[in-house]
Amino acid sequence: MTLAKYELIDAEKANHKIARMCAWLGVSRSGYYEWRDRPASATAQRRTLLAASRTSSSVRTKPTATGASTPP
C-alpha cells in the first residue's frame, strides 16, 4: 500500500509540497526519497523491456512466400 502512496506523491509533486503530502498520507519523507532513489527492481526492468518489445512488434508485417512475416 505504501508503494501506491509514494507513486501518488511522485505524480503530484508539481502541485503540492512533498513534505505536506507525506504528512497527509502518513509516510515519512525519508521513506519517499529512499523509494524514489532506489534502482528499478528486476521485475520492473522486465516489464519495461516487455512493453518495449510489444511496441516494436506491433509494426505491420507482410507475409513472405515461406509464411514468415517481415516488416514492409
Could you name the key traits of this structure?
two-stranded antiparallel sheet; 72 residues
What's the topology here?
Elements: H1 2-12, H2 18-25, H3 29-37, H4 42-57, E1 62-63, E2 69-70
Could you explain the architecture of this structure?
- This protein is mostly helical and 72 residues long.
- The protein has one domain.
- 61% of the residues lie in helices and 6% in strands.
- Strands 1-2 form a two-stranded antiparallel sheet.
- β1 and β2 form a beta hairpin.
- The longest helix is centred in the last third of the chain and has 16 residues.
- The relative contact order is 0.10.
Distance between the termini: 46 Å
- How much of the sequence lies in strands comes to 5-15%
Following the backbone from N to C, one meets helices and strands in this order, namely HHHHEE
Query: Mean pLDDT, rounded to whole units?
Result: 85
Give the tally of β-strands: 2
Ranges where pLDDT stays below 50 over 5 or more residues in a row are none
State the secondary-structure class. Answer: mainly alpha
Count of discrete structural domains = 1
Number of helices: 4
Strand order of the largest sheet: 1-2
The major pleated sheet works out as:
2 strands, antiparallel
Approximate shape: elongated
The Cα radius of gyration reads 20 Å
What level of helicity do the residues show? Answer: 55-70%
